[in-house]
Amino acid sequence: MSTIILQPSVFSPLVIMQHLLLTSLKNSIQAQEAFAKEQGEVIVALALQMVKTIRQGGKILLFGNGGSAADAQHLAAEFVNRFLINRRPMAALALTTDSSVLTSIGNDFSFDEIFVKQVQALGKPEDLALGISTSGGSVNVLKAMEVAKEMGMVTAALTGGLAGDGGAVGRAADFVLNVPSDKTPHIQEAHLWVEHLLCELVEREIFGDAA
């Protein structure tokens, strides 16, 4: 009696998952490659501005919502602690971590003000404000960017979208790093890549390659 070997159906969960895996990876790589190609000069310019900020005794203020809040905290940790080399800390602060401050402002005033008041309290003209918004339309990020600019800070935005201008947040910034994609996961993946790249560029420019 012969044995019948059943081939996996093209509609089987395994085949579908494998297809999704490869498609997601391909689309993510394409978004990052397009981002690097279109925004390379701005990335380098922002890195140099961050170097200037740190060298003149300023700090980097970071803020965003949801996954972008996590990015702000991640980036602050890389600056304050280390990225690839052991060196003295660099000043960076995520405005997304103090639950008492965030909830008191949100409760007493508005969720739209949660970053504005922190920028007003902690920011100085020699600082750099970096707002992260996947859509480019986060109102609380936009308001904080506008206030930072009024206070004399340099402003930068990490955004996404096919329009290319980074939305309202991008238009309010001195430096705009916009991922040319309409897929939120791929925008966020590109944000993480450029955040790491900025850390490396700044770290090496200030401290060299010393371990």
Order of helices and strands: HEHEHHEHEHEH
**Based on helices, strands and strand pairing, what is the structural class?**
alpha/beta
Main beta sheet: strand number and arrangement? Answer: 5 strands, parallel
Straight-line distance between termini? 68 Å
Task: Kindly give the count of domains.
Answer: 1
Order of strands across the main sheet: 2-1-3-4-5
Mean pLDDT: 94
Please state the second-level CATH architecture: 3-Layer(aba) Sandwich
Shape: globular
CATH topology: Rossmann fold
Cα radius of gyration in angstroms = 20 Å
Structure description:
By secondary structure, this protein is an alpha/beta fold. It has one domain: Glucose-6-phosphate isomerase like protein, domain 1 (Rossmann fold, 3-Layer(aba) Sandwich). 55% of the residues lie in helices and 12% in strands. The protein contains seven helices and five strands; from the N terminus they run H-E-H-E-H-H-E-H-E-H-E-H. The protein has a five-stranded parallel β-sheet, with helices on both faces. Helix 2 links the parallel strand 1 (60-64) and strand 2. Helix 1 runs parallel beside helix 7 (184-207), helix 2 runs parallel beside helix 7 and helix 4 packs parallel to helix 5 (139-150). The longest helix is centred in the N-terminal third of the chain and has 43 residues, at 13-55. The protein is globular and about 80 Å long. The mean pLDDT is 94.
